[in-house]
Known about the structure:
The structure holds two protein chains of two kinds.
Chain A (H helix, E strand, L loop, with lengths): L4 E3 L3 H25 L10 H28 L13 H18 L15 H26 L7 E2 L2 E2 H26 L8 H8 L1 E3 L2
Antiparallel strand pairs in A: 1-4, 2-3
Helix pairs in contact in A: 1-2, 1-5, 2-4, 4-5
Chain B lengths: L2 H32 L7 H10 L3 E5 L6 E5 L8 H6 L7 H4 L21 H5 L10 H9 L2 H6 L5 H4 L14 H16 L2 H4 L10 H4 L6 H7 L2 H5 E2 L9 E2 L25 H6 L9 H4 L11 H34 L1
Antiparallel strand pairs in B: 1-2, 3-4
Amino acid sequence: MQTNKLYLYPVWVRLWHVMNALMCLILIISGVSMQYSNPEYPFIRFDLAVSMHNISGIILSASYLMFFIGNRFTANGKHYRIRIQGLIASLIKQARYYAFGIFKGEQPPYPVSTEMKFNPLQRFTYGLTMYLFVPLVLITGWALLFPETIVTNFFGFGGIQATSLLHVTAGFLISLFLIIHVYFCTIGHSPSSNFKSMIDGYHEAH
Amino acid sequence: MTNKTVKRHRKPLAAFFVPVILLLTIFSASVASDKKAKSLDDESKQCLKCHSQVRYTLVDTTSGDSVKVKMYNELKIDPVSYLNGTHGGFKCTDCHSSDYVNFPHPASVKFESKYTCLDCHGGDEQYASFHFETIDEEYARSVHADSLGDEFTCWSCHNPHSYRLTDKDNSITNLVAYNNSMCLKCHGNSLISSTLTDKDITNLVNKHDWLPNQALHFQKVRCIDCHAAQNDSLMVAHLIRPSSEAVKKCVECHSTNSILMSSLYKHAAREKRNELGFYNGVITNEAYIIGANRNYYLNVASIALFALTLLGIGIHTLLRILKNRSNADK
C-alpha cells in the first residue's frame, strides 16, 4: 500500500498534547480516587490524591492557556471550528463510516489533509471538549481550589455542591472522551501509526 | 372597565384575604402561646441588679458610706442569655444558698458546694435520653479530666447561666459556631488558658496548618468531631482525646461512611433520609464533602455510560479483528 506523509502536528501542538494527556490522566486517576474514597480500600491516599489533583490541575490550566493562545494566533485553530451548516449530515456520514463503511472496505468520507486534519466527528467532539468541557472543568476546579469564593447558597442548593457536580460531570465526560479518543487513534494506517504521529508530527495516510 | 365591575371584582378578593389574614393571626397567636415566655422572679431580679452590671455599689451599713466596686467577670450574668438558656426559668436560690439574699453576702456562702450536672440530672427518667451518666463516665476518661482534675468541671465548658441546647431546629453552621465557641473560650484565649495550664493550648491556626481549607473546616465541622471518640448512645461525644489521637485521616470524613454522619449530622440524619439520591444527603444542605456526597443516580448513570462505551469499543475491536482476518484469508 502506498503511503504519503503529511506534517500535521507542529512541535508546540505535540508538546501541548503530551502535557495535556499526562495531566488529564493524573487528574482522572486522582479524581476518581477522591470521589470514591474509602478508608478500607484506599486507591491513592486522600491527602496525596488532593495534592496530585491540585498540582496537575494548575499545570493543565497553563497548558490549556498555551493551547488557547496557540489556536488563536496560528492556523491550528481553524481545525476546531465547528461548521454548523450541514453539521448533522456530516456527523451521520462519518459515524456511518465508523459503524459500517470501515468493515466494508470503504474509503473514509473525509480523508485527512493539511486543510482538514480532523473529520467532522473529530472536529465536533474535539471542539466541544476543548472549548466547553475543559474550560468548565478548569473554572469549577479553580473555584473549588478557593472554595471561599463560591456562593454559599445556589437556589437552596449548596454552592460548593453545585460547583462540584458540574466539575465531576465535566471531568467524567472528558474521561469518556479520552477513552474513545485513544481507541479511535488505533484506527489509522496501522494501529500504532497515529500514536507515532503525535511523536514525530507526521500523519501517515492510507 | 366601569367602576361597578371593579367593585364586583374587589369583593371576592376581600372575601378571600380577610379570613386568610384572620386565620394567620389566630395561628401565629397560638404558636406564640406554645412557647412559654420565661421571666425572672423578684428575688432573682434583685440579684441581677448587681450581678448583671460591670460595677455595683457597696454600702457600709454602719457608716452609710458607699463605694463603686468592679463585678468580676465570672460573677457577672447576662440576663438575656440567662433567660434564653436551658436553666433560664430557675430562681437564683434554687441552685445557690438562700443566704445570698442577705447583702452584703455573709462569708459562709463562700463554703457552699457547687452542683454538678448529675446532682440534678442523674438517675432522672425525664433526662434519660441525654445519658448524663454515660457523659460523666466519658468525661472522666477525657484529656480534660486526666490533665486538669478538679480544676475542670462541667461548667468549664457549659456555662450554667447561659448554656442552651443546640437542637435539630438549629442550622448546622450555627450549631458548629456555638459548639466551637465553648472550646475557643480557653483554646482561643491565652489569658484564660494560662490560668489552667502552662502548656500552649492556643495558637490553633498553626497547630492545624496541615489541614487544607482550614477556615472552611473550622466553619463547618465541630472541634469535637475530630477530637472526641464517638459514642453511638450519645448525641454529643464527651470523651475528648489528647490531640495526638485526633482524627487526621481525611477519608474518615471524606467517604460515604463518613464519621460525621455519626457525630455532627446524627440529629439531622435521623430526621431526614437521602431525598435527592445523595449519599449522606443531609450534609449537602450545609456543606459539601468530597467522597461523602455522591449522587446515587449520577453514579449509576456514569457507570452505565462507562460500561456502554467499553462495550462499544469491544464490539468495534472484535469486528475489526474479524475483518482483518477475512482480508488476510483472501
